[in-house]
Amino acid sequence: MVVFVVVYVLTLVWLLVSYLRTQQALQWWHGRQSLQLCQEADAIRNGLLQESLSMRRQLELSPVQPLGYLEQTHQTLLTTIEKFYVALNELSDHLDPPYLEDSLPLAIRSAMDAWRVHHPQYPVKLVLPAKWSHEPPEQGRILLTTLAELLRLTLLKDQPTELSIAICLISHARLSELRLELNCPDISRLSARTRATEFDQLSRAFCFLMPGRWCHQRKDQTLIWRLCW
Questions:
Q1: pLDDT at 45
Q2: CA–CA gap between residue 177 and residue 170 (Å, rounded)
Q3: What's the rounded Cα separation, in Å, for the pair 217 and 17?
Q4: The predicted structure's pLDDT at residue 113
């Protein structure tokens, strides 16, 4: 009887601790998404809105300016509009990732193409199947968000450029797997970062939201994450 009570109490304690940790992980996940939305809003206020005000001001002044000035203004407006279009396209893709409704491999490829634009110093190898069974868009968004957070947490500004990235999407008999591999000569410094609390929060949030399994290992000069669902 005493043994039963002890086991019962320990089980309750374990469940309570697990619940609290999962709650913290979801709060962290929500906080990260809220921070990204705030950053996007700041980018709009400080970028797109300022550009639109500048274009409006130039158009208002153009009727009273000489011909040479008008030609220069015309070219400036064309350049600004092109930048405006690119920024809006990036924002649209961030809010609603392309191909997410139709193909997870294409969605991953598109997301990494956009990521390369801002991180051209890192070579990226993608191993993605041509055919893939349909994934609910909600799961695809969780995968893309998790992948982006993993790259953000590991690739800090002081990271050496002698680093290569491989991303593989694999279909097994009963589960699917997204694998991220980071190969780096200075793997010890990179590996030390992966013990941060944020990685634990990210793994718990992923396992709960997908739901799925999370595996992290080091092999020679390579760090490997396996996200299974």
A1: 77
A2: 5
A3: 25
A4: 93
Lookup result for tokens 């990179």:
190
CB 124 within 8 A of CB 165: yes
Using pLDDT thresholds of 50, 70 and 90, give the confidence band for residue 161.
Answer: low
**Cβ within 8 Å of residue 151, ≥6 positions away:** 115, 165, 180
Q: Is 27 helix (H, G, I), strand (E, B) or coil?
A: helix
Output the DSSP codes for 123-156: -EEEE--S------HHHHHHHHHHHHHHHHHH--
Nearest to 161 by CA among 182, 139, 140, 130: 182
* Buried b or exposed e, range 106-119, using 16+ CB within 10 angstroms: bbbbbbbeebeeee
Residue bearing tokens 């001001």: 57
Q: What is the pLDDT of residues 63-98, one digit of tens each?
A: 655 545 556 666 777 777 777 777 778 877 877 888
DSSP letter (8 states) at residue 44: I
104, with CB counted inside 10 A (0-12, 13-18, 19+), is buried
User: What's the angle, vertex CA 154, arms to CA 171 and CA 196, rounded to 5?
Assistant: 105
Cα→Cα distances 25→183, 206, 211, 215, Å: 27, 9, 14, 17
Across all residues in the chain, what is the average pLDDT? 81
The H-or-E segment that residue 192 falls in is helix 187-193
